[in-house]
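TICKET: design request
STATUS: open
ATTACHED STRUCTURE:
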């Protein structure tokens, strides 16, 4: 019996991907009853949501609500430890995988700190992402969509501006075979003019039909980009609906987003 089978013993755990129909379409990605811990600290407390293919979902909440922890659990990072729950992507179970296996299955996380590798040029950072398959976009396609990176191709990547490094972090994820793009605070620490540039890139990602979950403290910007929104509070889902519903509900925004 596996770890997850043991944890679901005596319960009716799904043997197929948990899916909820929304607008006549089935979920492409599903997170079901996720429980995750940092040590003994119980952070993600029964989070469930799903995303249709090509949809952008904004995962929102105040600081400490469990947003980043949920993204990391989905990407199968070592911390937090997922102790219960199921993760399905394109009919494949992800919840028992290691992080590298989840990445090979198409889950690409762009973390808040971007993880740009010092001592390597922009192009070398992109090439490193493609050492192991499966591959995504070619360098030529990346440079077509990110002309700034083409201009900086031979530059030490960590000497670029914060906005340019964020472009590189997104491009590096697209260099892999991405089925689900997880973006953690893509606007963090960027000047307003650079935020507009990143927004343009994310609109492009949306137009390309890439399924995306975005965590962002700039909730209004994320909501204008997203199709749907999930709001977390103290590690639990308190709202799951359309992005427009959140924009239209002042009480909801004040209670859970402070906007």
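STATUS: resolved
RESOLUTION: sequence designed for all positions
ATTACHED SEQUENCE:
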């Amino acid at each position: 019996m596996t770890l997850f089978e043991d944890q679901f013993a005596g319960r009716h755990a799904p043997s197929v991907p948990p899916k909820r129909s929304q607008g006549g379409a089935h979920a492409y990605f599903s997170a079901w009853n996720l429980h995750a811990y940092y040590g003994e600290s119980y952070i993600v407390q029964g989070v469930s949501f799903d995303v249709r293919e090509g949809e952008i979902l904004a995962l929102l909440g105040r600081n400490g609500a469990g947003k980043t922890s949920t993204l990391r659990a989905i990407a199968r990072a070592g911390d937090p430890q997922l102790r219960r729950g199921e993760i399905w992507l394109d009919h494949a179970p992800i919840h028992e995988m290691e992080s590298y296996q989840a990445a090979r299955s198409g889950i690409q996380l762009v973390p808040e700190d971007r993880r740009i590798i010092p001592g390597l040029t922009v192009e070398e950072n992109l090439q490193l992402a493609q050492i192991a398959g499966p591959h995504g976009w070619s360098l030529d396609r990346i440079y077509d969509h990110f002309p700034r990176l083409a201009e900086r191709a031979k530059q030490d990547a960590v000497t670029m501006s914060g906005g340019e490094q964020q472009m590189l972090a997104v491009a590096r994820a697209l260099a892999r075979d991405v089925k689900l793009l997880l973006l953690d605070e893509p606007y963090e620490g960027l000047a307003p003019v650079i935020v507009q540039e990143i927004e343009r890139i994310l609109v492009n990602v949306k137009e390309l039909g890439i399924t995306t979950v975005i965590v962002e403290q700039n909730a209004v910007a994320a909501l204008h980009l997203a199709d749907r929104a999930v709001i977390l509070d103290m590690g639990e889902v308190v709202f799951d609906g359309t992005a427009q519903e959140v924009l239209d509900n002042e009480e909801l925004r004040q209670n859970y987003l402070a906007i």
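CLOSING REMARK: The longest strand covers residues 41-51. The first helix runs from residue 3 to 7.
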